[in-house]
Design goal:
Helix content is 47%, strand content 3%. It is built from 18 helices and seven strands. The strands form three sheets. A three-stranded antiparallel sheet has the order 1-2-3. Strands 4-5 form a two-stranded antiparallel sheet. β6 and β7 form a beta hairpin. The longest helix is centred in the N-terminal third of the chain and has 24 residues.
């Protein structure tokens, strides 16, 4: 995989300071996609990396929320577009929900490794209050009772849209709209690789209800019919709090750093309430009070947060090995032993490079270097053999979803995946389905 290809993908998806995930399926700026893309860009061009984050934060709401989609310019081919969200955001227009808060970790990573540290700190200093406001929003607006468990109000916020974790909480959302005919995604990608119409009806019911409040985030956080603590966001936020605290310290803002560390400590302590009887970390439905009945790859992310004990990390390594016995390519998004595991359908089974990147980081931190190396090798083989797909079939390796995907290219850059395309340990992919 020549580095040139990675550059070509990022260049083709560049819209002038921000990057679309993929031109065909997602023609706008997406929140967590841009954070990973910024980390990748930093290896090529630190100035451009910061611009990616700055363009995202142009859309920050007055209350601190960073929306999940920024509609900088009109584009055809995506539902729901700005007219369906009807948010008060006008310059630029945006959706009314958020996504996993990776941006602070991206900013710290770029500064820490900067070739031009002075320039990087100057850019980061301008972003710092905005990043801090976004973390305050999570810990205050999205944790109204101060429990340490932050909540999401729509499955799209988790980034793992149709994960089986959301089946039970979504079943309690009575659909009031029918939107299947408006969808564009399943006309651009094989419908077997996308969420169902029933899923879209329920999430757009949540959007409709949120819109009826006038997009009042404090009300939505307590009134939404879908209120879930997502183990992915909970973990990513703890890590991002710590990374932002490190950035604040580097920029001589100790007061900010102390607030962030206190939030991170509270949220890390609350993880104890998310452990299932089998020891895995789960998401929690805050409406029913039940832990999710699905074990998913995001359940490894407390290691990325550095919020696990060594014994918990070792138990996670044993779970990883059990999963690895059932699929050819790690890490499937859903436990491959779960009857709902579907190797093709979006977040119900496929492998995602960005999640792999975070899971490997977590295992490496706890000394499980063999697992980290296995994940990097699998990701490298998937991308070098099958291209920069949005996601991959963990059984056959087949590329799925959109192609020439920005964040898949960014992870290839970050992991320097050139040269890991040789089959290792006798494994090889069967022909793509
Ligand atoms: C989509 O449209 O599938 C996105 O994941 C929503 O953010």
């Amino acid at each position: 995989m020549p580095a040139q290809t990675v550059r070509a993908i990022l260049a083709a998806n560049d819209r002038g300071g921000y990057t679309v995930p993929n031109n065909r399926v997602y023609p706008f700026q997406w929140n967590w996609d841009s954070a990973f893309v910024a980390m990748g860009f930093a290896l090529l061009d630190e100035d451009r990396a910061f611009t990616e984050l700055e363009r995202l934060f142009e859309a920050q709401w007055p209350d601190g929320m960073v929306p999940h989609i920024v509609f900088h310019v009109d584009a055809e081919g995506y539902y729901p577009g700005p007219e369906h969200w009807g948010t008060p955001a006008t310059a630029p227009r945006s959706s009314g929900i958020t996504q996993p808060p990776v941006a602070a970790s991206a900013a710290w990573r770029i500064v820490e490794a900067a070739r031009d540290r002075v320039a990087a700190e100057a850019r980061a200093r301008a972003l710092l209050p905005k990043l801090f406001a976004s973390h305050a929003w999570w810990h205050e607006v999205r944790d109204p009772d101060g429990s340490g468990l932050v909540r999401v109000v729509n499955p799209w916020e988790t980034g793992r849209d149709n994960s089986p974790e959301w089946d039970a909480p979504l079943a309690a959302v009575v659909p009031t709209v029918s939107v299947g005919h408006l969808r564009q995604d399943n006309k651009r990608v094989d419908p077997k690789e996308r969420p169902t119409d029933d899923f879209y009806n329920r999430v757009m019911t949540l959007v409709t209800a949120a819109r009826a409040t006038g997009w009042d985030n404090r009300r939505i956080a307590v009134e939404s019919a879908f209120r879930v603590c997502d183990i992915g966001i909970q973990s990513i936020l703890i890590r991002a709090d710590r990374d932002l605290a490190a950035l604040a310290r580097a920029l001589a803002e100790p007061g900010m750093a102390a607030r962030l560390e206190a939030w991170a400590d509270r949220s890390a302590a609350a993880l104890a309430g998310l452990v299932a009887p089998d020891g895995s970390w789960r998401s929690k439905d805050l409406v029913s009070g039940r832990l999710a009945d699905a074990s998913v790859s995001a359940g490894f992310l407390p290691l990325y947060a550095r919020a696990a004990s060594q014994a918990e990390a070792d138990a996670a390594a044993a779970r990883f090995r059990a999963w690895a016995g059932r699929v050819a390519r790690m890490v499937p998004s859903t436990d491959p032993g779960d009857p709902r595991f579907d190797p093709h359908r979006y977040w119900r089974g496929p492998v995602w490079s960005v999640v792999n990147f975070m899971i490997a980081d977590g295992f490496a931190h706890y000394g499980h270097d063999d697992i980290a190396a296995r994940i990097r090798r699998d990701t490298g083989q998937l991308t070098t053999r099958h291209g920069f797909a949005e996601y991959f079939d963990p059984v056959t390796g087949a590329p799925l979803g959109g192609r020439d995907f920005s964040w898949t290219a960014a992870i290839a850059l970050l992991w320097n995946l050139v040269g890991v395309d040789q089959p290792v340990g006798g494994e090889s992919d069967p022909p793509a389905a």
